[in-house]
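Whether sequence alone determines local backbone shape is best considered at the level of individual chains. In the encoding step, the backbone of a single protein was reduced to a row of integers, each denoting a local shape. For completeness, the protein is quoted in full, as a sequence line and a line of structure tokens.
***
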Amino acid sequence: MKPEDLERLLTLEMPFGKHKGVVIADLPGSYLTWFAREGFPAGELGRLLALMHEIDHNGLSELLAPLRAAARARR
């Protein structure tokens, strides 16, 4: 994981499927678990989905709170 990956979770939107347009960090845990079971897509998207799954599965979503606050302040 690179530090900028955490920021990318808050900016990259899901490009397809049921949750198209939803920022990766806001995807439901059940959707992330489905990917973990069925297989993550290749490339950056899959890597970030896997990272978000680990964060969500281990109850670490609060790690993103300061980044969310900073992103809101920039808007």
